[in-house]
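[09:14] KT: can someone run the structure on this one? pasting the chain below
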Amino acid sequence: MIKVLELFGGIGAPRKALINLGVEHKSIDYVEWNEKAVRTYNAMFDNRYKPESVVGYSLQPDILVHGSPCQDFSRAGKQYGGNVEDGTRSSLMFETIKIIENLGVWKPKVVIWENVKGVLSKRMISAFNHYLSDMEGLGYTNSFEVLDARNFGIPQARERIFTISTLGNKQFDFSKLRTVPMRNVKEFLEEDVSDKYLIKQPSMISKLPGKDVPGTFGGRMLHEIKEYAWTITTKQMRCPNSGVIKTSKGYRYLTEKECWRLMGFDDEDYYAALKEHPTRQGMMNGTLYHQAGNSIVVQILESIFELLLSGSYEKDRNINKEGQLELFA
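[09:31] RB: done, structure tokens below
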């Protein structure tokens, strides 16, 4: 049984990936400070976790997954850089270092960190290199790569950096990840959509597709979704956003359910979250948009876990002298 610790756990993409793979696992703990995200996680996985901070945490996982808040590395955020000294949200990634240090002899065999690719920018790279150096000092070998959800079947132009640190000298080989062709975005879109999703705000109407300006961060026009959506963000009623859909009545936003689907979650996951956070009559559900935008694409994690586990999910695995599972063949 694989023991997983989820830090900055959000709505539980790592656990969802392991469930999809049929891997017997135990989430030995889930740590998340956002109360609404915790409620969603509990509703999806039938747990009773409470909001907690990662600061000072101590457990014994085989795999540690952390996706520290991305705002301070994001082009849409403040770009403070997540340095240890500045107290920003992303500096919480260094709390992971402290947690591993506190574990003593027992260290996670694998540490996975996901964040925006802005960590590689000139302003942010020093903090990223500091993190890599600290992990090396703890006995880990680092490997990182920018992965795009479109290469894992999901029609979403979402590029995120994944850093995988393995205990010892063996390096994770991203070139061996299983990739699949991008699916048709129409498979993810709802057919009967309420008029409340139609774009009616004058400020947004003025930015509707016309000159076909790419809908990327820093752009001034909205992108029409044809083959794929742009990055699912925490809000849709803004420019830029994840893209808009052309209908017979005009352009509309993506629905909350569509955003969840484009992050790799099932409709039953969405409905569990919706039951916990009901949508007000005639309104769009900001909580469910936010939770989708803050998550990790499930299918990318599936591919990573497959390679880490060498495609072998049997219950009985080799145990090393420290009592941990051997994750590599």
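[09:33] KT: thanks! The longest helix spans residues 125-137.
[09:34] RB: yep, looked fine to me
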